[in-house]
Amino acid sequence: MEHSADSAPVLVVLTTVANEDDAARLATALVERRLVACVNVLPGVRSIYRWQGAVQDDRELLLLAKTTAARLDDVTAALTALHPYEVPEIVALEAASVAPAYAAWLRDAVGA
Description:
The radius of gyration is 15 Å and the shape is elongated. Helices cover 31% and strands 37% of the residues. A hairpin with a 2-residue loop joins strand 2 (38-51) and strand 3. It has one domain: Alpha-Beta Plaits (2-Layer Sandwich). By secondary structure, the protein is α+β, with helices and mostly antiparallel strands. The protein has helices at 20-32, 72-82, 100-110, and strands at 10-17, 38-51, 54-68, 91-94.
């Protein structure tokens, strides 16, 4: 894995939204605040889940936000505050391998 003791691991944070406007608003806010380096917005996600006792089947957009472990608490707080869902998906996955140049750019972009 590409990280040293004094550099935070790279994470990919997943969240979903119902529409393009919410996706753009969240992605822009996270990047502008330097909480994440980049957000990929993937349309065409079909989510099947249980909510309030019923199975739901919805079309959503998946956001893949790249950040560091050092910024995760701030990313989580921002998503919780800005997300339109009552209970937003916020799942962080540690990257097993990251190209050194990309990792350096990402850490610089988020200031960590």
